[in-house]
Amino acid sequence: MADLDQLVRYLDAELRTHEVPDSDAALNGLQLANSGRVTRVAAAVDFSLQTVTAAVREQANLLVVHHGMFWRGAQALTGRAYDRVKAAIAGDLAVYSTHIPLDLHPTFGNNALLAKALGLTSSGTFGRYRDVEIGVQGTSDVDTAELVNRVRAFSAAFDTNAVATPFSPGRRTRRWAIITGAGASPDVLAEARERSVDTLIVGEGTHHSAVEAIEHELVVVYGGHYATETLGVRALATHLAEQFRLTSVFVNVPTGL
To answer: What is the rounded distance in angstroms from the CA atom of residue 113 to the CA atom of residue 125?
Structure first.
């Protein structure tokens, strides 16, 4: 058993929660307290009624999420919003949210861990956001079709069908970059061109991101927003459990996207 305050201080320091820039809606850090004790940590990508219910069923006292309680901004606590909060409070479940601080973490970050899962070796960061870089990049000599298949195999485990923009048979990936989640923004595509990236792996993007990528002979692999952001919270919860002699569980609620 551990004190919630102790766990929060540890997470804030490890993730640099109050230093890393993010959107106001992310509200990184402890979002909901409990009675003060934690014996089991649950991890989930999203704060939802399904993840809260599953975490409580698993007898967790702390839920670590990537997309927190206030992702859509301020809202009235009525309907499903009320149900989510009521279920968490009734289950004595604290909620800690970490978005960009987790994305860019060198050990527990979604981007660093996805690179490893795909058999890629990172040699630097990528993806400028204000004064930080969120993703990772590196060099390789791998058949692009093989790399796309690796992403598809990874995403399939989370009920997601990864897709890629068209490319010629035999094409090789020499310089790659990864931005999990909604990674195919116009700014990221422009940065990929600036840094001579030929293959960009993201979670999701707009239709026009594919049009733009094709025009510039950049292959974009869309692995799924949910799937590409499962690794960080899971690794973080496992680490927290090991550090404080707790138990942990990953709550898997795929969106298919």
So the answer is: 13
